[in-house]
Amino acid sequence: MAEKISRIDDRYSTNEKYTTLRGIHRDAQRHLSEVEWNYLWCGTGDEVTLKDNTAAFDRYRFVAPLFAGIDDPDTRTNVLGFDLSFPAFIAPFGGEAVFHPDGHLAIGRAAEAVGIQQMVPVAASFPLEEIAAASSVASIFQMTFVGDEDTVLDLMERAKIAGYKYICVTYSPIRQWRERMMEDRFSIRGERGPANFGPGRSDPAALVELLEFTQPRWNWQQAARAIARAPLPCIVKGVTSVKDAHAALDAGAVGLYVSNYGGRTVDRTPAALDVLPSIRKSVGREIPIIFDSGIRRGSDTVTALALGADAVALGRLTALGLAADGEYGVRRTLELLQREFWTTLGHLGCSQVEDLSEAVLYRSVADMAR
What is the Cα–Cα distance from 247 to 119, expressed in whole angstroms? Predict the structure, then answer.
C-alpha cells in the first residue's frame, strides 16, 4: 500500500528544468553580468518605492475557509475583450535584448503558448511589426505621449496596421534617477538600438525630444486630443491616484493601468498596491484595470485581483525567465505563475476568478479575529 501511495503522490515529480520561480531567478542572475542585473532589478533613488511595492503584498494575509465546496478552480478570464488562460499580460518593458537576443520575439511565442496577451513597448529591441509577426498575441502597443502630436499619431497608425488592438499611453516628463545604472555607467549600446525609429520607420524626433527636453511636456488637454484622434482605443499607464484615474477617463481612455513602473520612475511614490483599492472604488467595477509593480509570484496576482485589478502585467518576472532560458524560461515562468494562482484560488474557496474579492483578505491582526 505504501508503494502505491508513493506512486500516487507525485505532485512534485516533473521533468521540467525549472520547478519554481526561485530556480528561474537563480539562473537569470547567474547568466547576467552585475551591470545587466542592475539594469533589470534596480529602482530609482534609494529604491524605497521598489521595496514598498513588494512589501505592500506582505501586509495582507489570506482567508482560507474550510469545506468551501469548490469546483476545480477555473483561472480563465476575459479582459479588454481578450480571453486569457489566467489574468495576466506581458508588461511592456524595453531593452530586452540585454537579457536574451530573441527578446520580445521569444516572449510573444511563450505568451501565446500559455494563453495570455503581450504588451509591446516602443523601446523594444525589435520593430513593432516584427514582434507582431512572431506570434498572435502582440495586442497592445505602449508608447509615450511626447513631442509632435502628428508624429505620435503616425506611430499609432503603424501599430494598427501591424495588427495591434490597443494603445497603452505613458507619460515620461524627465529622465529617471537610477543610481545603480549611473554607477555602472550603463549604456545599451552594443545591443539593438531604437528599433522603431529611423529610416523607413518612425520619425526619431519624439525619441530625441524624450531625451533632450526642448519643449513643454504634454498636458491632459493634449492627451485627450491625441486619444480622440487615435486609430485604436487607448488605456493609460502610470495611474497612481483617483485624480489621475478620472483625468484619464475624461481624456477618453477605455481602461486604466495602475502602476508606478516598478519603482523605476521616481522614488518615494506610494506602493502601487496601496492606491489600487481607492481607484477601483472611485471608478466603479465596469472600468478595466490592469495592475503592475510588486508582483513576484502567483499568489500576488490573487491579492491584486481581490483589491480591484482585472489582470496583472508581468515585467521583471518575464525578464527573469528570458534571462534564465529564453523562450522556454518565459514559458515556464508563466506556467508556474498560473499554477500557483490556481492553487491559491482553491485554498481560498474560489472556483473562478470572479469569486475573488476583498473578502479573501485579512488587512490587520484585528481583522483576523472576525
Answer: 23
Average pLDDT of 161-189?
Answer: 89
Domain limits for position 114? 30-185+221-369
Higher pLDDT, 217 or 210: 217
User: What total number of domains does the chain contain?
Assistant: 1
- The grid coordinates listed for 217 are 511636456
Section 296-320 average pLDDT = 98
CATH number, domain with residue 353: 3.20.20.70
* Cβ–Cβ < 8 Å for 226, 152: yes
Contacts of 263 (CB under 8 A, 6+ apart): 43, 44, 47, 48, 49, 50, 51, 52, 53, 293
* Cell numbers linked to 15: 521533468
* Residues 6+ away with beta carbon under 8 Å from 118: 89, 90, 104, 107, 108, 111, 131, 135, 137, 138, 139, 140
How big is the CA angle at 152 (ends 150 and 153), to the nearest 5 degrees?
65
The answer to whether residue 180 scores a pLDDT higher than 80 is yes
**Alpha-carbon distances, residue 116 vs 42, 74, 108, 339 (angstroms):** 26, 15, 9, 14
